[in-house]
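Incident log, structure service

09:12 report received: a user says their structure output differs between two submissions of the same chain.
09:20 pulled the input from the user's history:
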Amino acid sequence: MTTATPALRLSVLDRSRIRQGEPPAQALRDTVAFAREAERLGYHRFWVAEHHGVPGVAGSAPTVLAAAVAAATTRIRIGTGGVMLPNHQPMVVAEQFGVLASLFPDRIDMGLGRSVAFTDGVRRALGREKDAADHFPEQLAELLGYFAPPPDSRPEVHARPAEGLRVPAFVLATGSGADLAAEAGLPLVIGGPHGPDALLAAVDRYRSRFRPSAQSAAPYVVLAGNIAVAPTPEAAHDLLVSEAWSTAYARTHGEFPPLTPTAEVLARPMTPRERTAYDQALTGHLWGPPDRVVADLRTLLARTGADEYLVTTHSHDRAALLTSYRLLAEAAGLTPAPE
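09:34 re-ran on a clean worker, output below:
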């Protein structure tokens, strides 16, 4: 008697990356179309992100974009990865998600991050200081309180239509952020290239410090990172090139640019500093032919005990990128949406 291989739970985070030579509006339209394809392929969630003043990213208003994505799909869960809570008033965030959850019941996720805007100018425009992230725990508690006020309390302000709705909340974290998720009793989303020791330490710490809450009775871990799948290792590796160059350029020039075609990146002369940053940006990802990637992914999930994987890959070659997500879904045994 054979034991069936357990199904993987895979989701998608799309940042609405701008491609070289295309307007930001095209990136947003691509996000909506991508969500439809992710739903068709059987992915569990589709999340959008928040970035302000970044030349290479069109996704600056995640709850607005989430509404467009939810309206264009029918069953996949839609959410944010994430709303950067220090940039906003918690009541406004509660109201926005209350509207989303009212329009699209049982489909909305509230992914929350603690990063503040990258530059002084953007922080000033948002009315935030550099230390705004220090107040994340208090902001998080206030936000959750708008959905479920403490028993016997008489809140001075009600966030309608959020009050009384159940919108699953997730904490996006690196490093010490895992402790915040544990203390709040919320699912953890932990991203970045997967250095095994640091990743395992953060996940173990989260589980050991987790406090059950009205939101979550037990720990729940979502790993996030790049996965590139293609028939050959070389083609899969090429999918990582344009995003790696954007990351390297940002680290060496202070500006995150639109996605550049792979051939242009590979032909580009790089300074030693750029080359070091580029090589670093290419490490820690899962890539290769479908069966090998899924085997590596199962090993990673088993080693960390993670419940879900949030795929965050971006590439200038949109057709090859969609093929990567399709091959991954097929190899992982995802259940396609009915026609």
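09:41 both user submissions now match this output. Likely a transient worker issue. Closing.
09:42 reviewer note: The chain has one domain: 10-228+289-332. Residues 229 and 325 are 7 Å apart (CA to CA).
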